[in-house]
Design goal:
The structure is a homotrimer.
Chain A: E1 8-14, E2 23-27, E3 30-36, E4 42-46, E5 62-64, E6 67-69, E7 76-77, E8 83-85, E9 103-106, E10 109-114, E11 136-144, H1 148-156, H2 160-164, H3 172-176, E12 180-184, E13 189-199, H4 203-209, E14 215-224, E15 228-237, E16 253-265, E17 268-277, H5 284-313, H6 328-343, H7 346-350
Helix pairs in contact in A: 1-6, 4-5
Organism (chains A, B, C): Streptomyces spinoverrucosus
Keywords (chains A, B, C): 2Fe-2S, Iron, Iron-sulfur, Metal-binding, Oxidoreductase
InterPro entries (chains A, B, C): Cholesterol_7-desaturase, Rieske_2Fe-2S, Rieske_2Fe-2S_sf, VanA_C_cat
């Protein structure tokens, strides 16, 4: 099992999921209650009543203004976690207080900070396309019944597109084209690039861009361990000029594929996925095509990773894997995750 | 997990459930076979054939007169547990004998004794209303996927009615009104009383009694640890005279709410519930209303306690609860259960 | 739990199940991939890609000629298990190789060898009736959620037919008639015989043979531990001459009941069952009757053994069984299995 990395921001929900209904999510094994105050601020509290541990996200718990009322015995909490009412007596015990979770809304995500330290000035990594007016985005979340490390492996090695996602986003060139990998240990970023100069155009891009014929296709991965994965995808007909020195690239199509990778329990993971494009911004048909198509692709991963987890669950201890060049990025990610996990373990915090 | 208390009577079934079909129930982890002889006596035997441990309550095991025939190889047992026939030979091994369970039928329940000692003269506690001609009763049983201690906690603290059962039996006054608690350690009885002098009448009582307007509402709990819970409920329009010195109380409505709390396994419980009333005895509409309404209330508890058990299953060891005044009865019950469990453990028996 | 016996042949599938679709079966806890080459040879390989342990039997893994292509990243293997292609590079690591399983097709079964040693000249035991032109066979496979030892117990003691399979193959005489048992420790064969000279004819035989009235019924069991069970069943009207000295027996009906007993995991078993008859060879109605009737009988066993396993799962350690004469064969089988398991354990192999 891939160790959890504490003292980090994780995507707990999309902003549109957090509202005036109580929402429960479990992040790194911690049950978290999410809701929005009447003036629109997202709140994160421990999702267990201090009295008898009833989940505050469970029916019939409810909001009363900005306060949360436990559905079992009516213990009532403010947004600061402090209990303000208990049944049958006027005195509220001083220790009646829920843990609070730092929350940041950014780029359409609600991020929560999980850790022993405070985040201080640390902000979550960025995915600005997701709520930019220059992009149109489709998104969703699918739970995976597997270790989050399996999703990290999956996304760092896109050669699997050719096999698992053939007919959607995979073509032979993805698996055939070598990658380059750069590891920034200090920033905990792994970059994996695959530039295909003359490749088949898979349906996902042919149907959304209208390109007929072969393409140059660039996949530039930027994994901000542990929680955010970006895939900068550039697609253009063969012969299209390269991006200009000023960075502009008016003749190519750009898709920003974003994953929030959120470990829930040791063997379950929230897979937040988003696809932002800089073309056909108002074309609803393209929007629906990409939503449906990418959902299919994500479900292919979910089914495969669930099967893989079940297979690993029956492996004898000490089983072996065999890694090759395509795994350079994934192995670097594993090393960074192991280091970050060790540095941020409760034991490390205690020293 | 709440320890099991051995050397006690537990409700294994309603009398009407025990007949000429074989019935299997697991009480304190012990699988028990229940049936009724041709002349109407309830029998309790170990529910595992001595041969290969096949459950005698499982199809196609069957009764042959008063004898039980195992559905696998035909080992046949009398009501005393003694094996009287085995296949392929005339000699029956002397040791072929099922454990028997003392059984008492009382107050519409079939009680079984679980323990190392014999019950002697000890009888189960009483709930005479359930088969009294002066009361009309509705009842049922719902399994809970949770520790029986969660149900004890639930029933000893009725402030939860306001929140979990709002719109059925809960009103604001239940949570607001302080309780008085009396603990009889010797008899292992906990009494919790809440007398509301001027309270809203919840639909459960308004619709069954026809009272319009506010009520005095008394809740007098009597918990006979570990297995029987009684709630003496008195409801009357505000201004109704108090009960007379001789105990009669002709102007009020009385409901006796009875729970048989039967631990099945470490994380499952049989919740036997009954509601007996002393008014509108022959009014079928009231009967059906109370049956349906109380079933809804019980299921609200079941859903909440199942959720609570799942939440507790993921708690880290050493998690904390916070108790307040309303928990006085529940905490007393826990202490009594812990003491009884220790006094009656197999280890204690061995000393 | 009954220990696994390694260095043995086990039925992994029927020949007709192994074709150009990838088939996954787990035998003695080992995941095995089965398929057939273009020229018809059955192949058995480890069902886990060496790269990231993805199951090769899982969609979208596929055959490419005689090679298996992993559905996750395209690792490609020949029938000898050697990897011949990996994504993104031309060099294939030398160690990229799947374990292969010796496979024999015999008597309509695909047998695989599970063990540390090679099978050498050892062949699986025979059940020649299953693909003989002188017999007509119906067959199937049902998974049991139980220890394979429960199925061995079940089949070695047919007195259960009277109780579990009454109305199908059981009559009172089966349970009443004593057995004779012979144990050949060296060959690991247990023989149990029950000859009923004057017995009721159960529907299974009455409807298939057309016999009206009472029968002589012989049941001669031959259990080749651990994997193959044969029941030679002879049925004839009372008064029919005995088999002739030369072994021919033209006036009786013969049914060969064959079970492949294949442990899958510690608590799951493949129950391969077949019924071959030497009469009414072309009578489709008899064929369908026997298929349906025997499937019902097998499912009665499956339901009972699943229930038995669940019951045993909750037994306290050290629970007792009580054995009688009918268990002689089953107990002998257990002893042989325990000895074979010990002799063939990985620890024994290491000495």
């Amino acid at each position: 099992m891939t160790a959890f990395v504490r003292n980090q921001w994780y995507v707990a929900a999309y902003a549109h999921e957090v509202g005036r209904e109580l929402l429960g999510r479990t992040v790194l094994g911690e049950p978290i209650l999410l809701y929005r105050t009447e003036d629109g601020r997202a709140v994160g509290l421990a999702d267990r009543c201090v009295h008898r541990r009833f989940p505050l996200s469970e029916h019939p718990s409810r909001l009363e203004g900005d306060k949360v009322v436990c559905g079992y015995h009516g213990f009532t909490y403010g947004t600061d976690g402090v209990c303000v009412r208990v049944p049958g007596q006027t005195r509220v015990p001083r220790t009646a207080r829920l843990a609070t979770y730092p929350v940041v809304e950014q780029d359409s995500f609600v991020w929560v900070w999980i850790g022993d330290r405070e985040p201080g000035d640390t902000l979550p990594p960025r995915a600005p396309w997701l709520d930019s007016p220059h992009y149109t985005t489709v998104c969703g979340m699918e739970p995976i019944e597997g270790d989050y490390g399996l999703l990290v492996d999956n996304l760092l090695d896109l050669s699997h597109e050719t096999y698992l996602h053939g007919g959607y986003i995979g073509t032979p060139e993805v698996a055939e084209t070598p990658i380059t990998t750069e590891v920034d240990d200090k920033s905990a970023i792994v970059r994996v690039s695959r530039h295909m100069d003359d490749a088949e155009c898979p349906p996902f891009y042919a149907n959304s861009t209208g390109i007929q014929g072969r393409i140059t296709r660039w996949q530039d991965i930027e994994y901000h361990a542990p929680a955010l994965y970006l895939l900068h995808s550039r697609v253009a007909p063969v012969g299209t000029p390269a991006p200009r020195p000023d960075g502009s690239d008016p003749d190519a199509f750009h898709v920003e594929v974003v994953y929030g990778i959120t470990p829930s329990t040791e063997k379950s993971t929230y897979d937040f996925w988003a696809v932002a494009r800089d073309f056909a911004l108002d074309d609803q048909e393209v929007t629906e095509y990409l939503r449906s198509s990418n959902h299919t692709v994500v479900m292919q991963d979910v089914v495969a990773l669930n099967a893989l987890q079940r297979a690993l669950d029956t492996e004898k201890p000490g089983y072996q894997e065999l890694s090759i060049n395509i795994d350079t990025g994934g192995l670097a990610a594993r090393r960074i995750l192991a280091r970050l996990a060790a540095e941020n373990s409760p034991q490390a915090a205690a020293r």
